[in-house]
Amino acid sequence: MFNLKFKTMRTTKFRLIWLLAAAALAFTACDNDDDDDEQPPILVEDGLYIVGEATAWTDYDSKGQMAGGINEVDQQPRSTMFEKYVALEAGNTFKIVEIAGKQVIEYGPDNLVDVETNGENDQPNVTAKVGSYKTGGSYTVNESGLYHVVIDKELQKIAIIPVPYWGILGGSTPYGWDDAGTKLELDGSFDKQQMEFKITNLELRKGDFKFRYGSGWKFQLNDEGTVKVNTNFGGAVNELVPGGANILLTVDEEGIYTVTMKWSAETGGLGMTASMLKTADVEPLPEYPETLFMIGDGVGDWVWDNTDLPMVPVHSHPYMFWKIVWMNETGGFKFAPKKVWANDFGKVGDMSADSVYSIGSDNVPVLGNAGYYMVVVDLKENKISIEDVKVHLIGSTIGNNWEAPVADGKFTVDNANEVVTITKTLSAGELRMHVWHKWFPIQTPQPVDWWQAEFIILNNKIEFRGTGGDQERVNLTTEGNYKIDLNFKTGAGSITPQ
């Protein structure tokens, strides 16, 4: 008994000593770990993050990571640009933080000023905070709301842009490419977790549309205008793309809708999603032809194989077509949706004082003097207009003026040489042209914007936009005096430095 008791006590004492030693070793190991890692590991991937009490993310969160930006100028990804939509609360602060391995860099304001865009250059009509940044510091906003935060590391610039409302606009909407009457307003109050912008009882028809905020398409990040961020979405309703293609609505989808743009702290990427709920059906609209052709001895002859005079459809206005056509001294003409004698039409009665005919079955007579004329057909109003030709330059080559029609950019008609022409000193930039007509600005409820009747000169040929998207850009590389000739009989166009 004695030996057994002694052995047990000795074994117990040994085990106690071993446990104490192990505890001491563990304590020492913990101390060494603390010395090696002064900060706890950041459990998010490398990237730029928005974080702070002003946001829904008070700590680093993968859903607060900024997305790679797209330069609106060429619609290509820009490796140094990052953007994020985020609800920001006034009175609290937030930071933009870059995580790169174990490195943590905080970017704070440096020379941040208020910039009023006044809607210029297709920008949202807002007051944004724009400026450079430095390491350290934090940001605040004056009013709680949804913001579009953009940082460009090459430019060393940041922009904090308020989102006052979203708009839906396009040929599908009652007001065309103007969102003044189709704004998605904030539904409810400010919430750091989720914000919704909504419009109800909106009639949508066959056509295309996009979303944008503050009635702008882009926000300019540098004075030269070479870096801009999209302030619009296209692509698809269930997969929004910054600056993406127009979203299409089919005839079968026509109806009355509730449309919502939603921001959520739980949505990754840019944070925005859209939804459309059809709440009622609508009566179908009249079917209009997709094409329209002219024929007749007043503009050629009465044989379809000999006369090829397609009219140009007006974008987003399926009932309207235009054409600049050479008319002979005598003769007449008619219209048909295809180059066959079916569903053709002309006029009825006499021309009104403002040079308009009602659509009927009689030939339309020419005006008696050979030369170029502008013909516009409105199938919704059943009328035909024959006017003097009005062609204008617009945009960056002519004083960056985008308010059509630019009087200083009007072409003249040179019937002796069968061209419509202008000779003028122009700035470097995109050379864009369009026709103008008295009906365009007064269409109800959708006025015709200049780009819906534009064309370019590409490879010495006049190329009409029609119902298509943005055309390939033709740029004047240097400022100078240029002569531009347009031959609408042959389709030839030329741009000649003087």
Polypeptide structure, described:
The structure is a single chain. The protein is mostly beta strands and 498 residues long. The protein contains one helix and 39 strands. It has one helix spanning 2-36, and strands spanning 47-51, 67-71, 76-88, 95-100, 103-116, 127-135, 145-152, 157-162, 166-169, 183-186, 194-204, 207-213, 218-220, 228-230, 232-236, 239-242, 247-249, 255-264, 272-280, 293-295, 309-310, 312-314, 317-327, 332-336, 346-348, 356-360, 364-365, 371-378, 383-387, 391-394, 412-414, 419-426, 429-430, 432-435, 454-458, 461-464, 475-476, 480-487, 492-497. The strands form eight sheets. Strands 9, 10, 11, 12, 15, 16, 17, 18 and 19 form a nine-stranded antiparallel beta sheet that branches. Strand 2 and strand 3 (76-88) form a beta hairpin. The longest helix has 35 residues, at 2-36. The radius of gyration is 33 Å and the shape is elongated. The chain starts with a helix and ends with a strand. Mean pLDDT is 92; it is low at 1-37.
Strand content: 35-45%
- pLDDT average, as an integer? 92
Indicate the radius of gyration in whole angstroms: 33 Å
Total of helices:
1
Spans of at least 5 consecutive residues with low confidence: 1-37
Oligomer: single chain
Largest sheet descriptor: 9 strands, antiparallel
* Strand count: 39
Query: How far is the N terminus from the C terminus?
Result: 123 Å
The secondary-structure class comes to mainly beta
Q: Helix content range of the residues, please?
A: under 10%
Query: What best-fitting shape do the alpha-carbon axes yield?
Result: elongated
